[in-house]
Amino acid sequence: MCTFDNHETMVYCEMCGVFRESFVKSGKDVSIKESVNGISNNSGTSALSNSDSTKMPAKTSTTNFDGDSERKYASTSHDKVNSTQLASVGSSSSTGKKKQPVIFDNNVPIERTTQLNADHFQLKEDQGSSRASSSAQNKGSMETLSSDISQLSIERNNVNVAQPLPEEYKPEGWMLADQESGVLSQLNLAIVGHVDSGKSTLSGRLLHLLGKISKRDMHKNEKEAKEKGKGSFAYAWAMDESTEERARGITMTVAVAYLETKKYRVVLLDSPGHKDFVPNLISGATQADAAILVVDASTGSFESGMDGEGGKSVGQTKEHAQLIRSFGVEQLIVAVNKMDAIGYSKDRLEFIKVRLGSFLRSCNFRDSAVTWIPLSAVENQNLIKSPSDARFTSWYQGSCLLDAIDSLQLPSRDVSKPLILPICDVIKSQSTGQLAAFGKLETGAIRNGSKVLVLPCEEVATVKTIERDSSSCSIARAGDNVAVILQGIDGSRIIPGGILCHPGFPVPVANYLELKIRVLDIAIPILIGYQVEFHIHHVKEAARVTKIVALLDKTGKPSKTAPRFLKSKQNAVVQVTLDQAVCVEEFSKCRALGRAFLRSSGSTIAVGIVTKIMRQDQH
Ligand code: GTP
Ligand code: MG
User: Fold this and answer.
1) Å from CA of 270 to ligand 2 middle
2) pLDDT of res. 497
3) Hey, which of 101, 153, 198, 207 would disulfide with 212, CB 3.0 to 4.6 Å?
4) Is 338 in the pocket of ligand 1 (CB under 6 A)?
């Protein structure tokens, strides 16, 4: 119980947010009392305060360049898929740190990736923020959060962190050059949605229809799935490659695969739907330019996706939609799957459109940016061509999924800013010793021979080669999802959650942050001292809400007095302290590094943006 000296009328301690003893004893609110105890004992998030479990991998397998059996998306298993394992694990072998299982709230074991190195996570006084032109960077700020937050204005950074004077960044000519001739633009497409809605089946089926899976591999998958009594998962096995994923029949990590449409080279990011793996989804799907939200149309399943099992919580259809919008994704295809299970009923589709449509609107998806595609992945209806089933064709004349993908617009790419590449994975080849950092270039460009600053270790490395979809390319620009083979740096110095950036324009590394957040549907109020999981790009870090600065009204105006706790649907400015510093940037300067998510007890409790990076003494 709190020992601070508070006024007796106070329900909560002003210093730590804990309830006054007398109040708790009075039993006025048992549920809140339990939550407070939960916070102080970290019951829901206990693993987080243990440094051993604060860094979650987005993926569970050990990976290397040589396509060993554990490698996710090893090209050995799907020659034509050519998919490279991404979105995930650290170079644990290279760091000599063994991966250990981490137990999620409901005892789902996950392996732990490389520890972030605390020695290199101090905010340096002279380490400024990205120096890219602020006018360009500020444009259209806030549009990525939900409606209330998106209307708020971002104050200019008034952080008093000593920084060198910004120097104008001038991109070199080759960085801005047009798209290489004959090379399709890359579109990063996240596949999200409630567990078992058919995301992996749909992805696998698309790959198969587009010739990315050989007959031999498909036959092998079908045979093995049948033998294991999982015949209906044959297509999903193209994405779910690990033994555990196959045995459990669920996706656990974000799987990456490539396919080509008329217009795009699509990077498919097939995300896990199970609620225990939302952290993996956050790490992998933050790279998305657009998303396909897969919905199971069958009776009861759509409802579970909306309101959770038993209808009493938030299903992952809603949670994923909210998250993906908060990642900045504006364009959404809603794939209403398993239409075969409801006899291709138009009425059911309309019902789903009305219910989900109104939720998507509340997440600030514009109606015009949402495309509804009814389909059946299993019966191959409406995927790459118009449907053939008479029950479907009798009323449907719309687009097929492939055409809907080609109708997506590429978001603008910030090639004229300094390089920022958040590292989602690091792989070291056992045989050649080559070291590859995987990730999507958020801004800028690199080519063979470019010098890059590796953060948080602050060492400069040289780009030896770049690989895109397993084939080498000479240049990668903003938007490209690539493997960067580095030389001149020790493998143990580079970690997932780190950043490759321009040596003259380092990204801040900090653990005291001010955020503007929108609180989602929560059962337990957020108090000062609340322990949360802080997610930002490919990092998950244990954190504490250290101050609630103000409530924000719909216009973004802060309240004069700070509230003592936050509840559902409120917008607020809060300060958080992270156990260890992370590479982070103010949202107004780099959106990808300034979007944060707060999670607790297995649920996302708030989405937000970083508005200020602070030093300890400013906190
Ligand atoms: P997670 O990744 O674990 O969230 O699941 P998922 O969304 O990837 O679902 P998955 O592709 O693994 O499919 C789950 C089950 O739904 C499997 O048994 C599939 O055969 C089945 N399924 C997928 N698509 C369809 C469909 O169009 N119709 C029917 N009837 N079943 C489908
Ligand atoms: Mg799946």
Assistant:
1) 7
2) 95
3) 207
4) yes
Q: Three-state DSSP class for 72?
A: coil
| Helix orientation angle between 278-285 and 316-326, rounded to the nearest 10 degrees | 30
Q: Which pLDDT value is given to residue 283? A: 83
**pTM as predicted:** 0.73
| Ligand 1 mutation pick, 203, 378, 383, 391, max ligand atoms within 8 A of CB | 378
What is the DSSP pairing of strand 255-260 with strand 264-270?
antiparallel
CA pair distance 235, 277, nearest whole angstrom: 21
Nearest CA to ligand 1 atom 20: 232
| pLDDT the model gives residue 179 | 56
19 CA to centre of own chain: 34
Q: Which of 509, 452, 456, 458 is nearest to 484 (CA)?
A: 452
Pair of tokens at residue 130: 């990205």
Q: Is the CB of 236 under 6 A from ligand 1?
A: yes
Residue 86's pLDDT is 30
**201 CA distance to ligand 1 centroid (A)?**
5
* Helix 316-326 / helix 346-362 crossing angle, nearest 10 deg: 50
Tokens representing 87 are 């979105």
For residues 114 and 235, what is the distance between their CA atoms, to the nearest angstrom?
32
Full set of structural domains in the chain with CATH: 186-407 (3.40.50.300), 420-501 (2.40.30.10), 509-613 (2.40.30.10)
For a substitution probing ligand 1, which of 59, 191, 196 has the most ligand atoms within 8 Å of its CB? 196
Q: Residue 602 and residue 333: Cα distance in Å, rounded?
A: 26
Q: What pLDDT is recorded for position 176?
A: 82
What is residue 102's DSSP assignment? E
Residue ranges for the chain with pLDDT beneath 70: 1-167, 177-182, 617-619
Annotate 82-109 with three-state secondary structure: CCCCCCCCCCHHHHCCCCCEEECCCCCE
Ligand 1 atom at minimal distance to the Cα of residue 236 = 11
| CA 93 / ligand 1 centre spacing (Å) | 34
For the record, the structure tokens of 572 come out as 């607020």
Note if the bond before 456 is cis, omega within 30 degrees. yes
Q: Count of CB atoms within 10 A of residue 551's CB?
A: 17
Pocket test for ligand 1, best of 72, 194, 201, 270 (most atoms within 8 A of CB): 201
> Which residues are CB-neighbours of 139 under 8 A, at least 6 positions away?
none
